[in-house]
Amino acid sequence: HEKLNVVGIPIDNLKREKFLNLVYQELEQKQKNIFIVTANPEIIMNAKKSSSYREALLQADFIIPDGTGIIKASNILGHPLQEKITGYDLVHTFLSYASENRKSVYFYGAKEGIAVEAITKAKELYPNLQVAGTKNGYAGLGKEVAEEIASAKPDFVFVGLGAPLQEKWIASYRHLFPHSVLMGVGGSFDVLSG
Ligand code: UDP
């Protein structure tokens, strides 16, 4: 499918349904993991400043336009993106899919206690949700934590460490998650828990 280059970052130009079908297909086939970035203007500007962050982003399988800023930029560039897919909406869409398809989820990030509260809310909304685990985002960001999360074999790994930490973390440790969908979710656990 087509990609639009926004300051050096290739944004996928996909309709929401098409994107979701591609992700679910990969998830069911269990051939590889899937790294999704929801790119907002903050992420794009970070990538422009930092080459290590840009390299992490370029490892993503999908870079989805999050927010009207990116859509406006694409219009100005004369190459309109088809649809905005916000990160927080996507979290709910994946939680709903997980609940209906017996897929497990892991919430990693935010302050002590927040991910647990967010999971409680998620289970109220999506009763059949299988929880692989939770971990706060201030207990070290290294290999040990990554291995602990991987040992729970989650189908969806939501990483709420904020940009640029979350994308760098996923790029570094995705190899420990051979069949998972991994996605940076910013402050989504704070929103969901509150
Ligand atoms: N965070 C974390 N560990 C850190 C730094 C941040 O878990 O070392 C969490 C923070 O508690 C918050 C999220 O990352 O839940 C970042 O939220 P923010 O609103 O800044 O992210 P955005 O949605 O703007 O990307």
From TrEMBL:
Q: In which pathway does it act?
A: Cell wall biogenesis; teichoic acid biosynthesis
* Reaction catalysed by this enzyme: UDP-N-acetyl-alpha-D-mannosamine + N-acetyl-alpha-D-glucosaminyl-di-trans,octa-cis-undecaprenyl diphosphate = N-acetyl-beta-D-mannosaminyl-(1->4)-N-acetyl-alpha-D-glucosaminyl di-trans,octa-cis-undecaprenyl diphosphate + UDP + H(+)
Q: What is its EC number?
A: 2.4.1.187
Q: Does the keyword Heme apply?
A: no
Q: Does the keyword Phosphoprotein apply?
A: no
Top enzyme class of this protein?
A: transferase
Keyword entries, A-Z: Cell wall biogenesis/degradation, Glycosyltransferase, Teichoic acid biosynthesis, Transferase
Q: Which family does it belong to?
A: Belongs to the glycosyltransferase 26 family. TagA/TarA subfamily.
**Summary of the function given for this chain in its UniProt record:** Catalyzes the conversion of GlcNAc-PP-undecaprenol into ManNAc-GlcNAc-PP-undecaprenol, the first committed lipid intermediate in the de novo synthesis of teichoic acid.
Designated name of the protein: N-acetylglucosaminyldiphosphoundecaprenol N-acetyl-beta-D-mannosaminyltransferase
- Please report the organism this UniProt entry assigns to the protein: Planococcus shixiaomingii
